[in-house]
Every structure is written in structure tokens, then in C-alpha cells.
Amino acid sequence: MDSVPVSKRSAVLVTVAVLFAVAVGLFAIDLGASAPEPVEFSDTRSIGFASEVHREIGNEAAVPRAQVFYSQYQYVVGYYGLERAVAALADPTRQQQFGYPIATYVTDYAGTGIELDDNGTIQTDRSTAWVPAGEAYYVVDSDARAPNGPIVVPFSDRAAATTFADQHGGQVLDWAALRDRPVSIDDASLVRDRVETQQSNADARLRTAQQLLERPPAAVSTDMNSTATIQSRIDAAPNGSTVVLPAGTYEESIEINRPMTLVGPQTTIDGGGEGNVIAVSADEVAIVGVTVRGAGDTTRDPNATAEGDWDTNIELGYGHGDAAIAIVEANGTLVQDVRVPHTDSNGILVRDAPDTVVRNVSVAGTAVWRDSFMGVMLMRSPRTVVENSTFLAGRDGVYLHRSAETVIRSSTFTDGRYGVHLMHTSDALIHGNEFANHDYGGVTIMTDPARNAIVNNVVANTSTAIGTSGSDSYIAHNIAVDSRLGISTSAIGSLYEHNVLMGNEYGMRTGSVIATSDIARNDFVDNDRHAGAGAGPLRIWAADGVGNYWTGMYGSSTGGIYDRAYSPTDPVQGELHRSTAHRTLHQSPVYEGLRTLKGAAPGLRSGSIIDPYPSVEPHNPQRLETAQAVRVEGIDDNRAHSDTNDTEHEPSD
Amino acid sequence: MTAHSALGQGTAIAAREVKTVLRTRIYALLAVGLFGFLFVLVAGGGGAATGYTPAIVDLLLPLEVIVPVLAIAIGYRSVVADLDRGELAVFTTYDVPAPVYVTAVYLGRSVGMLGMLGLPLVATGAVIAFTASPDTGVFATHSGVDSPVLFGRFVVLTALYGLSMLSIVLLGSVIARSLRTAIALAIGAVLVAVVGGDAAILAGLTDGWLGPSSLSWSFAVVPNSAYRSLVLETVIAIAAPTEEAYGSPAASAIGLFSWIIGPLFAAAAIVARKRL
Amino acid sequence: MIPNTNPATERANTAQPDRNAATTVLAGESIEKRYGSVEVLSDVSIEIPAAAVTALVGPNGTGKTTLLRLLLELESPTSGTVTYEGPQTARRIGYLPQRPSFRPGFTVAETIEFYASLVETAVDSDRILDRVRLTDARNRPVEALSGGMTRLLGVGQSIVGSPPVVIFDEPASGLDPTMANRVFEVADELAAAGTAVVLTSHNLSLVSRHADRVEILSEGTVTELTAPQTLATRYGVADLREAYHAVVTADPADHGDGDDERPRDDPTDGERQ
Predict the structure, then answer these.
(1) Among residues A384, A382, A344, A378, which one has the least CA distance to residue A363?
(2) Does B122 contact A at CB distance below 8 Å?
């Protein structure tokens, strides 16, 4: 009986006992017990403010914030404004994606010496702390405001909250009461509803600018013969008059520093390759009909600093290059019916010149985009309108830098780097344009702005047809064909609907780790891959029980919706439209079983997209035909703004 | 027969079973194959890149199917081969009591079962630990309630499920009179327990003799349903809580343990009465 | 071993004075065994003495194996009793099945050590291997053993724990003469050391040379139980073979020797001549 030595036997016994204890212990641990500690807000994945608004706020403490730890989401989600946090916590799809909140912290203003300035902006003497949301008291309807409206102010201490309410109005609520309170936040649907208004606002600006065409002609003095310089004619004209130029080619650079209108339908102005050809430095100047060439080849200020943030040198350098027409610190300029047949720098440079209108203009840059600059360079010039224009080659068709509320519509962009390129620009509308053959992108939004609308555009044969960023944007009714990527859904809290993605390498692709957008009613047709996703929670691409149309999906359906969900990232389903063999696997009960089981615990998948309501028929048959035609014939014969729900604007040529 | 010698005999027989498992190369190959399979599952499902819980969701159904197969591979020969060789008759001359023999064979084989199942699972857990790190260093991260503890629970529950399957297979091996009937019996027993049980529950729901209120209890009666409901309730529901329970954990746990103990009792009783 | 001598006779004459005093260690009393309506054994009484080789011979199907299984208590008699009367030891009866087989993957030594660990007393495995002439093969895996060596290992297994009784079921069947002889030699040695050895065999020449007592089973009854020489004398025949046939051919239904054992063609016969 001694063949197993006692020491060996007790070693076995000890091992078994330890394993047993560990096994039991695993079930004894209460996993919900340890709530994580709050983190620096800058380390959270934050939602709520466009970066340029962020800069306006300056002081972080001016806006109450919340941070939420979700059970199935490895990033801590930060919210600017408690309204946004409350709305997110109330949203059931958020739980599906992130799991349930295991800890929520809010900014604590108790003991910070909180005051409000005249605008209602919060000022503090001492830095704020974090308090668990359930333990805080909230002052609502007070005078406190953020750039986007009234804000809820939290305190860890009821007395402090009451004191604040006494001084600045409002009432004190606890967390439960705050969550029961209806909230409304700016979101993408507001941007959708705003498109019409934005169009008519642009129309109004247009009408205002066109009044400049009504100015009386300046009397032409007798000593001014047909060879007189344009500059001399300008200098001789009174403010508010129209200078009508005789036909011909003028080799000169001119400056307009008083409000007047320059008209020259048969006139070519050649700057001789030095500096700006036409420089505008006064308000309410109009330049109509001229052809401009011979701008210098300086694309930007070569001495701009290379220090600071990555875009400091852009902001200081861009907007300081040469241009066919340079409009600097001048309001309400109109540039109409102007041709820039070639430029080695910018076509029209607009710097610190709000309410500029550029219409029916054509600009051609260099075939190699690095050799020239922007068709229209907008630097800090909000509320600009660019319409019915054509941009060929060069770097970007229209480059916008801190030029909010700009409207770019019914224009054509081909063969450049980007078609329209937004930096630090919110509330813009990009509508009814056509883009083709861009090296980098058709419409590209960078630097996390908010509330942009990209509507009704057609992009063909471009690297990234529409690249988004930021939040609360509206990307709808667009067509992207034959591109590497149709639409990037990186803008969060946004609405992507009624787009047609056809023949792209990727139809849509999301790069954001946050999945808070609604993506529905789009048609995905014959893309190499209909959609792709990076790391992050499960993306559910449907809204209000309506999904998207995906070629390749098949099966039984009820009411026009397939009975089975469709996942474009699924290795089997994602290939259905490309490979019949995948249908064989698609029918496997094991495959079905695996998918069913995965469905039992949603919100847990990385890099997956699922459409619970795939449509049997396309959502946008009309647009689909257009897309087909664009693929065959190119963009020229298939103007996007011929679409039925496009708002038509009369071309003036 | 004293208690001491029963323990000694049990230890010797169990040790022989362990050695047999260790020396049978096909089992090592199966373990490696299982790891490969699990790896493909968690890598392919995207679970590994996200965390333990998604990976568990990916693994649950396949394991429900694979574990019985492993149990058959490890257990179907165990008793019937001894019978076939006349060793059972020889054991009676050593006064080895049937319960000691059955328990020892079971314990020895279960070491093999746990090793074959546990090592690949732990290795898979390690893979997840390495791959599930966040994709960017820009933002603060936390693990949520996803934790190795959840995966540990999953491994323990899977091991229990494996042990119950092994117990059923062992019973089949005890009933069989030849290796050929043994494999048929093992497959049959597992099918009855796994497919038959769920089918009965489904039929019960369809015919109405099983009400929604007794549904969660009925899972306890079927080993794989008990396993599934335990995993959903004690592992996945932690990360993604639901309004209602996936099943009754206590009943399921008792059910699973009964499926381990019950067939062993039956097997011991049969060995004691068997013509050797 | 010197050829052509009968070790059992030598033992009877010289080795163990108390041998003929025949201390009974295992006794069957009025055993009847039926399987349903088929009666296999009827009224068999048998006493197994210590320090002797007891051989059960008889045609196939006469219940030799059944009697062994009853003695082993693998089965219970329909009526009658089997009583162990030997000393209380860790293991009472050792058993060599007809075709012993061992779990593959283990060596000869490991196999013996495994069985050794099933008994409570200390077992000298090396000595057992030595006794069954398997010391040289101790590290060989059991599946690589020849049939004879496997049988020897079975014998080794049967004596683990030094049981007062060992039962060999057809220990020589299917073995070449040398190997068959070796197995019987081991039986001799065990008997010489005081063990009660019970064996069945169709090899009458080996039985007559090595067995102290022979029981001929026929038609479910014990015909004789005595030393082979006495048996031959009683039937007025030259040797056991003839005695055997005298008993067996008296049966109305001759069961013959239709299986692979074939005692008539046993090559050991030739060897003996």
C-alpha cells in the first residue's frame, strides 16, 4: 500500500484542495463591488463639444461634466454637460452597446467659489472635484450657461446647491429627479431639420450680395482712354459705384480698398506671376465676370511658426499665400462669374472676411496638387457661400478653416487632393456637389467639429469619398461610387441616412470607438466590403426599426425586412454578395446557432456591425439609378442637384 | 477491507488511469487541437480582442458540443476495456469494492478530462489577457466588470459540465460488454442526455406541460442546459444584466452535480452485479 | 529441473512431510450450479489442500471454468457452499485468467507494482518477477510481450500478496512446450512453498507430471480426486491419459477435444518420449 508515498499523496490532496477552493472562490467574489475611481477628464473619450467651441470655453471648469464607466466598455466615457450624460444613460441602445453603467461621476462645484459672469459662464477660484452622481445635488434652470445653452450645475453638498440656487435662480434636484426630467440636446436630427433653413439663409446672403450688382456705373472721365489701367479706373471711381472694364487683357495687379463693384465680362487681368492679382481690403466689394491669371506661386507664409499645436502653423501660414483674388478683412464680398484658368497658388483667398459669396466661378490648379494650393481658401471667414462653381486639380477645391456656417453647394470638384476640406469648422452645409478623382478625399472633415451637414453630394473614384469627424452631423442622400471608402462614419452622434454606396472597396467604415450614430436607410450595393469597423462596441446600424439595404442578403422576409439580421462584418454574411459558396455556409445550422448565441449577449462584440432590419428592397431606388449612371458615364451628365429633393438654385450664366 | 486499503486501492487505480491518459498520445493531440480550435473561435469571433465575456459568448455553444465528444474520447473505453481484458475479474481477487473501482476510474479519467479541457481553456484565457488590451493609449481605460474571474468561472463551469458528461460516458462504459457496444452506448447516452433533454424541454413548452415558470427549473434536469444557464447566469449576466434570470443557478448547480454523482452510483451498482 | 522426473512425486516423497496431511484451504460442498434450466454442475464437493497442485481436467463444457469461478466467488452456486478455510491474509485467492491481458502502455514491472499497490501488505515485486522469470523483461511494455511471457506475467499477478490459494485457468493453452513447462514449474514451486494451486488443463502429460491431485470433471460431476498415479492404478491403465479416457469415454455424449487445445497432439507428449 505504500507505492504512493505519503508526501506525494498529500501533495495531490493539497493541489486538489487548492483547486477546489479557487473554483469556489471564483463564485464568491462579488464583481460589482468595486467601483472604479474617477479619472482625469482629459483621459476620457469625451462627447459633447466641438473642439473649436472647446477653445472658446477655455476653462474646463466652465462646463459641468460627467464620466461614466460602462460594464462592457473599456474606455471611460466623458460627457460635457450633464444633459448629455442623462440622455445617454436613458438611451437603451447605449446599454446594448456599452453594458450598464457601473459608476458615474459628475463635477462637484461645492467649495470652488463658483460664480457666474455676465454671460452666465461659470467661473471658479478653485479646481473642481468629482462626486458620484447618486450622491450629488443638481441646480437646474439657473442662470448658468454654456455656449450651447443653459446647464445643470452639480454639487456634492445640498447646502452649497441651495446657496447657488438662491443666488442664481433655479431649483435643486437629486440624481433620480434629474434623470426623470426631460432633456433636449442638440443632435443630428436638428441638423437635418436645419438644412432647409441653412439653404434659405444662404439664399438671403446671396440676395444681399447681389444687390452690389445694382450699383450705378461710375462716370468714366474723358482723359481715361481704353488703355488706362484698371487700378486708375478704380481709383477714379466713387464709393458704391460700378466700374465697367473695357474688353481686353490687362497686365497689372490691382487693389480695391473701397466698396465698389468691378465688372468685366470680356476682361482678363494678368498679375504677371507676382503676388496677388486682385486684392480686396474693403467691405462690400463685388468682382464680376473677369478672368484672372498670373498669380504668384507662394502658397502660404513660409515664415509661419512651426511651434505650438500641429495646426498652429496652418492657421498662421495658410491664408497668407498668393491668390488670383485675395479678400482680406473685408465683409460681404461678392465674386461672381470669375474664371481663374490657372493658378500656382490659391484661386480665391478669403481671410477674416465673413459673409463672402463666391458663385459661378471656375478655378484650375496644377495637375500635381503639391504644386499649387486651394481653389477657395477660407480662413476664419464664417457664413461664406460657394455655389455653382467648378474646381479643377490643385490641392483642395475649397479649404475651410474656422469658417462656420459656410454653405458650399451645387459645385463640381475634380482631380485635386480634397474636394472640400473642413478644419475647425462647424455648422457647415455641403450640398448638391459633385466630386471625382481626388487623391485623398471628396468631402473631408477634420478636427472634430459639430453639426455639419453633408447632403446630396455625388463622389466618384476618390480615395475617401466622404470622411467625417466630430459629432452631431448629418450625412444624407449622398452617392459614393468606385472609391476606396464610401463614407467614414467617424463623426459620432450623427445621422447617416439615404446614402448610396456602390462599387467601393468599403461602403462605410467606422473609426470611432464610440458608436452613437444612427445609420439607416442607406443602400450598400456591390462594394468589395459593404462595411467595416475598428475596435469598439457593437454597432447597430438601424434606426426606429428600419435598417439598410445590402446586396447579397437573401432569405425569408416579413414586411419587406429580412427575418435574419445582417452583419456586413461577419465573415460569412459579409461575403454573400461576392461568393455563392458562402451561401452554403450561411445555411449551416451551426452557423445559425453561433449567430443566435452571439445575439443572446449583445453589446459585447469588437469591430462588428449588425443590421437587425435589413431591407429587401433598396431605400433609394432613384439615387441608385443615378449612382449606376455615374459609374458608367462619370459625374458630368449626372448632376447631383438634379435630385428630386434638392433645392434648386438658378445658375446665373 | 479497511478504509485505508480502500483509499490505497482507489489511489492506485486512479493513478493508473491518470498514467494511461498521460501516455495516450492522442489525448495530448486532442488537447492541442482543442486549443487551436478555441483560439480560432475567439480570434475569429472578435471576442479575444474585446475581453473575456465576449470570448465566453463565442466559446459557449461550441464547448457545449465539444465537451461531450471529449468525454466520449476519454471515457468510453475506461471500464469496458478492463472488462474485456478480464481485469475486472482479477480485481475481485484483490477485494476491490465496485464503488472504489468506479470512483477511482472516474477520478483518474477526470484528471485527464480536466487537463484536456482546462489547459486549452486557460491558454485561451491567457491569449485573451494579452490581446484584449485597449487599442489606443490616448484614453483612460478600465476593465468594466469584465475580468479574469469571469473567465475562471467559465472554466470551472465548463469543467463541471465535462465531469458530468464523463460520468454519463463512464456509465455507458460500465453497461457495455464490448468496445464496439461501448462507443455506441457512450454516444447514445450523451445524445439522450444532451439532445434528448433539450428536445424534451422544447416539446414540453410546445405541448404546454412545461410552463414558463417551471422552465428555468427544467434546465437543471438536462446537463447541457444546466451548464448553459449557469454560464449565462453567473458569467454573462454579470457583464450584461437582464431583467429576468437565465435560469435558476442553484437548481442548475444541483442538477449538474447530480449528473456527476448519479451515473457514478448507477455505475457502481452495475459493476457490483456484473458478470465479470 | 531434471527431465523425466515428476516434481510432484518428489515433493510428495521428500519435500513436505505434512503434504499428505492435506490442510484444506478452500472447500466446495455439494455445489450445484444452474443457468436457467441448464445444469452445469451437480453435487460437486471439492477440497483444495495447501502445498499441492490440484488439476481439474475434463472435456470442454464440463464446467471446469464454472467451478473455478465459483471457487473465486465470481459467481454464487445455485446450491451448496464454497468456504475459504485458509489463513486470513491481505489477499486470499490469486487468479490467472485463461487469457490474461494487461493494460497497454505500462511495463512489466509497473504492472506488477500496480497490482502490488492493491494489497495492503508490502510486496516484493522484484521477487515476483524473479519467480516468473521476467526479471530480464521488467522494462518491456506489456503489449510487446509474447503470449508465454504474458501468461507468466499473469502468474506473477496471481501471486501478488502471497495468497494461500492461486487458481490458474488453462495456464498452458496456446503456449509452446518450453513456455508451458515453465508455467507448470512455477506452479510446482508455489506448491512447494505451501500455496494451494488449482489449475485446469487439457495437457494431460504436464498435469500428470506436475499435479499432486487430479480431478476429472465430466457431465457436471467430479469423477475422481486423487494423485495422478493412483488414478492410473485405479483404472488399470498405464498413465493419466488412459485414465482420462477411461472416465470420459464412459460418457454417453463424448464432448471431444474439438478446440485448439488438442491434448492428443500436444507436442509435450513427444518431448516426454
Answers:
(1) A344
(2) no
